[in-house]
Amino acid sequence: MKITLLKILLINIEITVFFRSLIDGVEYLGYLVVLELKLILPVAKKWQFKQLRLTPCTYAGTQLDHNWVITGHNYRRHFSYLKTLKKGDSLCFINASGAKINYLVEKTEVLQPTQVNEMTDSGYDLSLFTCTYSGTSRFTLRCHQVNT
Q: Which of 48, 49, 116, 133 has the fewest C-beta atoms lying within 10 Å of its C-beta?
């Protein structure tokens, strides 16, 4: 079992996180960190409905292939406040090895549930999506990876 110690600076508070990539049979890739929203969320490697109730999950693609799509419920503790982010806002992903990958928000859009190809073949390095409040559409945040 691999355990990585991560230190995340969140609004001038240092948080120490012990990351184990396999917990209760679920493989995690790391943490999604959105400082603007004071949000730190583990991301599961595979999408499963029962897992989605607990944490965001990879829906398609990978971080390494620059076509990663992560889905999360519209819970306050998950992706509810993504809609408040705007172009130029930053977020990052800290993988199980402790490497930090930085992203900038490029745009937001609302897709229909049937627009699967538009969701997964977007040309963006990272896409985060959740249901709209009505549950009939998908609010989507599109991001590009940046080098810092």
A: 49
